[in-house]
Structure formats: C-alpha cells, structure tokens
What does this fold into?
Amino acid sequence: MVKKIIYTVLFAMVSLVVKGQEILSVDEAIHIALKNNYDILIARNDANIAKANNTMGNAGMLPNIQMGGSVIYNQNNINQVLSSGAENKYPSSNSNSYNANTQLSWTLFDGGKMFVTKNKLNEIEALGELKFKEQVLATMYNVIAAYYEIVRQKQSLNAINEVINYNRERVKIAQAGYHAGSLIKTDVLQAQIDLNVTLENAVNQQFYIDVAKKVLNKLLTQNADKEFEVNDSIPLNYIPDETELKQKLYTSNISVLSYQKQVDIAKLGYKEIQRLNFPKLNFNASYNYSKSTNNISSVFQNRAFGTQFGGSIEIPLFTAGENRRKISTSKIQLESAEYDLKYLKLQVNTDLLNALTSFKNQLQLLEIEKENNKLNKEYIEISLQRLKLGQSTSLELHLSQDSYAQSLTRLINIRYNLKLAEIKLKQLMASL
It folds into this structure.
C-alpha cells in the first residue's frame, strides 16, 4: 500500500510539472533548428565562402595594379687617393634616393581559360547553395524524427498508464473475490505483482522520454535540461503520389542535383586544364618616378619620371609532360564524378522505393492493428467482468492485459514508422 501511494504521488507531481511546461510544436522546433543548428551554420558559411570566391578577379579576368616605393639615405666618410697623388677627404658625404612606381599587369588572352574559370566559380557557388539546402533537409528530417520520437515515448507512457488502471481494477476485483471466497490468495498476489511491474515500466518510460528530449535539445542547440512539452499525437494525413515521385525524383532530389553540379564542375575543370596549352598574351604598363641627391657629385640632384607600357606573350612549347599529366588527371576526375552520380541515382531510387514500400506496409499494418486493438480492448473488458462474476481466472486476465499492452505498443510504433516513411519521402523530394 505504501509503494502504491508513492507511485501515485510521483505521477501526480510529474503531471503538474508537465502542465506548467511550454508546448513546443514541430514547426517551432524546425524554426529553432534552422536558426541555431551548428551543422546548418557551418553549411551556410561554406556557401558564403563559395559566393565570396566567385569574382571576376579570382577568375583572372581583371588587371592587377600595384604601387610601390622606396627611400634610401646614405651618409659616408670618404677618403680618396688619386693616381696623381692628390688626396680628397669628405668627412660627411650624403647621398639620397627616392623611388615610386605604379604597375599594371593584365592578361588579355589565355585561350579562354579565364572565362571557363568564371563559369566554374559560378557552378561552385551554386553547389554551395545546394549543399546548404541538403544540410537543411537533413536537419529538418532529424528534428521531425526526434520530435515524434518524444511523442511516441509519451504515447507509450499513456499506454502503460492505461494498463496500470486495468491492473488496479484487477487488484480490487481479486481482493474482493478473495474476501468473498471465490478467488484464492495467489490471484491477489499475481494481480499485485503485475501492477507493480507496470508501475516500474512507467518509471522507466519516463526516463526514455527524458532521453528523447535531450536528443531534440541537442539538435536545437539548447541546453540538455531545457524543459518543454510536445503535442500528444502524430498527424497522419499524407498520401504520396507514387507516379509523380518517381518522375520528379532526379529533378527534385538535392543530393542528385549536387552530384550533377559536381559533374558540371569537373567538366569545366577539364576544359580549364586544356587551356594551359594555349598561348598567353599579357599587357604591362607602369608609371615611375625617381629622385637622387649627392652633395659631392658634379650632379647634385637627378630626377626622372614617366610611363612605360608594352606586352608579352608566353607560348608553352615544352612542359616536361606536366600539362598532359594534368589533363589526364582531370579527365579521370570527371569520369569518377560521373560514376558517383550514376551510383547516387541508384541509391536514391532505392531509398525512394524502400520508403514507398515502408509507407504502404505500415499503412496496411495500421488498419489491421486498429481493428486488433479494438478487439483486445473488448477482450480485456469482458475478462474483467468475467473475473468479477467468478467466471474467469487471474491467468486469463493477465494474458488479456498482456495482449492489449502489446497491441498498444505495436499501434504506437506503426504510427511512428509511418511518419518516418512520410518525412523520408518528403526529404527525398526536397519538400519538407
């Protein structure tokens, strides 16, 4: 009796805490994750880096302009002995020089490599955005799955509490029957044992709920002990269009689009390397200023300034096979990218078919288990009434309770698995 009172007080306290907690919806959880999740923030930074690198200057299309200058001060003590025997002494000789220049260098033609490079940078930027979207979808899938895992564990606790109520009713009936002489002492003991086991299951189930909440808090980048509550149900209103999913898979799936983009980048990289065999035409120009002074020279001051311009051409006649090696390597990399794309398409198609099969199977199981759950519930109600009338045994009621508990567990798991199949299909189609 003391243990029963302790468990009753414990669950009452848990219920009061839950009532005071904030209700977190799945949409709110997704919003928090998209704002704070570290994987998403890193993916966003990677995309921003690719965007920052996509410039005409980085592609080599713009000129480079540099400015420089120098100042040199010299102070020497000079002692000269001439061939005539004369001797000159300059105890303090100063000579100074000043230089400044501005230089411009511009590649006017490199076989079109700069334009190929710019297109490649465009594709790399686009790939960065695809990778970001891919991480967003992955995070959304994980958040939704973690959210409904908490719902599943909560529903399991509700199912255990329902069984607890049946066990308590069974204990009352067994005690009344024992006092009336229609049941034996072992029936009372077995009923109380079964009640204690389900009470222990409820305590363990609350631990599983706490663990599931910590998993979601981690995904939301919140403290592990952040308190919140979730909704009690798993909405199941999704009806997939199998034909449409198969038709649009390769044009909607972010992973496929990312790998296709990598193939495009590899093709441009191959073209970029091929341009190394073309001549390169450069234009150079500069403006120079120089000034020098010397207090012992016949020319006390010398100053010059003016412009220079011209051009140069570079023709790769022999590179010791280096260009050929780079072209060969780039071609192999392109082939590997194409193989990766083909393999990914097979994998994504398999994932789609598996998700569809899982969805259809779970949907069928759901209808069957709903009916089975009704039958088990009716069975346990009848068994309780039969026990009251002394027409049943404690073992029969124990078996009916166990069968009903298993049915509730299967029903909860089927709903959860159906939801997982739904969000997997939506992730594959980038429609989460």
Notes: The radius of gyration is 40 Å.
